[in-house]
Design brief:
about 90 residues, alpha+beta, 5 strands, Alpha-Beta Plaits
C-alpha cells in the first residue's frame, strides 16, 4: 500500500520549496516512490508517495501535511493543509 502526503506551500518559489523537501528526505535517507507538484491558486501543492507509512507520517508531521490514511497535522505554520478536493492537477498527474 502506498502512503500519500499532500501539502501546500504558500509564499515561496517552487525551487526553494522543492529543495527544502528534498533536503529533508535526503538527510533522513528516505526515497519516496513519487514526488509531484502543481502550481496554482495560492501556492504550490506537493504530492509525495511513500512505500513505508512511518516515512510518510514523519514527513507529514515535519511539514504539516495531510496523510491520506487520516493523520491530521497539529499546526499549519507556513505550510497549509492541501484540500485534496480542490487540488490543481499538474502535468505529472496526467
Amino acid at each position: 500500500m502506498l502512503h500519500i502526503v499532500e501539502l501546500r506551500h504558500i509564499g515561496h518559489d517552487l525551487s526553494a520549496s522543492a529543495d527544502e523537501l528534498r533536503n529533508w528526505l535526503d538527510a533522513h535517507g528516505i526515497q519516496p516512490i513519487e514526488f509531484q507538484h502543481s502550481v496554482g491558486g495560492p501556492g504550490i501543492t506537493f504530492r509525495i508517495r511513500f512505500l513505508e507509512e512511518s516515512e510518510a507520517r514523519a514527513f507529514a508531521e515535519t511539514f504539516h501535511g495531510w496523510l491520506n490514511n487520516g493523520m491530521q497535522p497539529t499546526e499549519t505554520a507556513r505550510w497549509a493543509i492541501a484540500d485534496p478536493c480542490s487540488r490543481t492537477e499538474g502535468a505529472a498527474d496526467r
